[in-house]
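[audit] Reproducing an earlier prediction to check determinism. Same input, same settings, fresh worker. If the tokens differ from the archived copy the diff job will pick it up downstream; this log only records the rerun itself.
[audit] input (345 residues):
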Amino acid sequence: MNMSDNDSVVYSDMYDYDYNSTCDQDPNLEFPTGSMVLSVLYYVLFCLGLLGNSTVLWVLLRHVKLRTMTDVCLLNLTLSDLLLAVSLPLWAYSSQNFESCKLITGVYQVLGFYSGTLFVTFMSVDRYLAIVHAVAAIRARTLRYGITASIIIWAISVTMATPQVVFASLEEDGNSSQCHPIYPDDTVHFWKLQRNFSENTVGLFLCLPVMIFCYVKILIVLSKSRNSKKNKAVKLIFIIVCVFVVCWVPYNVTIFLNTLELLKIPLAPDLCKASKTIMYAMNLAEFIALSHCCVNPVIYAFVGEKFRKSLHKVMGKYFGWSSGPSSHRDTTDKETSNTPVRSEY
């Protein structure tokens, strides 16, 4: 696929972040969002995300019995990340027609932000129930409730992304076409604020606090446990929280700063320079946030004992690799034991 600066779609133009209008005539304020470097980086994300998530999806569907809420949640998170990764190369051609523009907008909003963030939070809640309320939550963490919760998350994601899909359209800009929401003239300000407020509410004010609460409670329980796997579990929790913060908090901060800009709150004496800085930061933060779809398979699947043993068994079956001394039955017994740390990590 060839992507030139003239025919590629600028990734951050999906959001049309509306830098200060007084900067429009300044020839020095050209944002390098359509550069070949950024395009190459997105293709790297595509390759890594496709490899990691397709492997996880294959093992889950072919070699792991989906019996618990954890399994269903991991399946949906993997599916969300995989679809997002597969969609990344389509950005190069979303300028071709109106339909692809709307499709890419929907994929980005539903899969890239809302569902991915919500399923990561769902995983945190599931681990919290399994470890902090291990006995009481046995009946709640069933396959049935996992499917129900997943359907609700997908419905919420689609609902919150609908306005951006409805208003998504192509706009000619010289030799290129930019795909981003074009709002009615009399409600432009409202819809831009609504978009930013929705994303900040989900990512910064809802999911992040829930994750922190869940893992703090888990750490408290683990600190009182004498289980030999405690240290590994603590390290995994630390990695989960840190990766989520590194990937999504910068993105949400730039969204928040853009909201202040929309509200005409001065962020610096030089408004044009502030707008330019926000746009540069948005490009970097957006890339880092999307990279989360490549990291999730490593965190939630390959690091987990249950999935890792299933993967070893698959490798042994198809490639003749050693799958270790434990049998599949032993693995299942260990993962369904009454020890919370052992069963979840």
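[audit] rerun output stored. Observation attached for the diff report: Residues 1-15, 25-34, 323-340 have pLDDT under 50 and may be disordered.
[audit] end
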